[in-house]
Amino acid sequence: MPFELSVALRYIRSGRLQTVLIFSGVAVGIVVFTFMAALINGLAISLTDNVIGNIAHVRLEPRTRPPQLLGSRDSVTPLVAVQRGDEPRANINGWRAVVQMVEAVPGVTRVAASVTGSGFIQRGERIVPVSVTGYEEGKLSAMVDLAAGIVRGTATIGPGDVLIGVGIAEELGLTTGQRLRLRSDRGRERTLVIRGIFDVQSANLNDRLAFTDLGTAQGLFEVVGAVTRIELKVADIFGAPALAERLAGMTGLEAIDWIAENARLQDALTAQGNTGDLVKFFSVLLIIIAVASQLLLSVMRRKPEIGIMRSMGITRSSVTWIFLLQGLFIGLLGSLLGALLGYGFSSVLAQVTLRPDGSQGLPIDPALGEYGLAVAIATVASTLAALLPARIAARTDPMEVITQ
Fold first, then answer.
1. Across the chain, which distance is largest between two alpha carbons, in Å?
2. Integer CA distances (angstroms), 218 to 99, 229, 232, 318, in order
3. How many CA atoms lie less than 13 Å away from 315 in the CB half-sphere?
4. What is the average per-residue pLDDT within 172-191?
5. 3-state DSSP call for residue 193?
6. Helix, strand, coil proportions of the chain in percent (round to 5)?
7. Distance from the Cα of residue 220 to its chain's centroid
8. Dihedral angle computed from the Cα positions of residues 15, 17, 19 and 25, in that order, rounded to the nearest 10 degrees
9. Which of 20, 201, 282, 283 is the most buried (most CB within 10 A)?
10. Tens digit of pLDDT for each residue in 30-65?
11. Which helix (H) or strand (E) holds 166?
């Protein structure tokens, strides 16, 4: 065993109480680091899932075309005004070919064509505005997990059937098997049978959404043989903007990604990430201060021994390595212990905060504790913290120590 390594290990073993304290300090810092990582990362995933769990990651819609000005004639400049809402509904014709093209793009996991529009359901004197979406066969739960959210009835619908949210059902006193009259914003009316009532854990969706088959929606909104949008789910949700840009170039349609429509969520995630990074920084700073102060005390206490080693021919570089190796071992072993404790603490806390329905009360994910990063940072920080005590020890004058 190299001389420097044997001396460093002997110094670590000699002061057991000191060693326990310094290892505890490093371990506590790593527990805080990993816990904050598991909490912040878990919270980010939870918030993201709540926002985009029931929406498309990318939407393809027809581009809005501004009216073209006619050429001026006899010094007369034509002026064109368009009243919003009076322009023809923009549709996607030949949508099946577009769907096949999009499905072949790497990273796209699910594709569903749909017709959407506004309308209202009336029962007696009560009128409830709704947003109606009709999906092609087999794609009803592709974007919104209706199958998992059904509380009454079934998620399987056919022509003339409709699914409504629990908010609409409660407001109008409706249940499965009953008929309702739905009128679209195009003035078309249709009597539909309620096949299912869903609860997707969002009051906004439960109170305003109704789902039909594609043919029924096409009839209600006067969309013959076309769709109004194509919705996508992607494997990398944070890569949605780049994929949307690519799809827009491929299809000629307007591609809207979920990040562009949820800027506030991104701001919240960034703020949470910055808070977590600040706590992690102070955790590492705690480790640096603890290791540096402990090794400085060790240098002061062992100055006579260091002087004797220097007088026996031990070089300054060897003395420096003795204390750097101490910092390395303290950081590595202490951080490994802290990572293990941090994982255990996060796991216990995740289990303790579980609600009776199985959902998490505290959105912590022990698997996202960034343990490898914590160990690496702590080891490097501890080694660098030992640099100052090592330099002080290396500058010890053997003659000065011996003559004292």
1. 110
2. 17, 12, 20, 82
3. 5
4. 89
5. strand
6. 55, 20, 25
7. 37
8. -150
9. 283
10. 898 898 888 888 888 777 776 677 788 899 988 776
11. helix 166-172
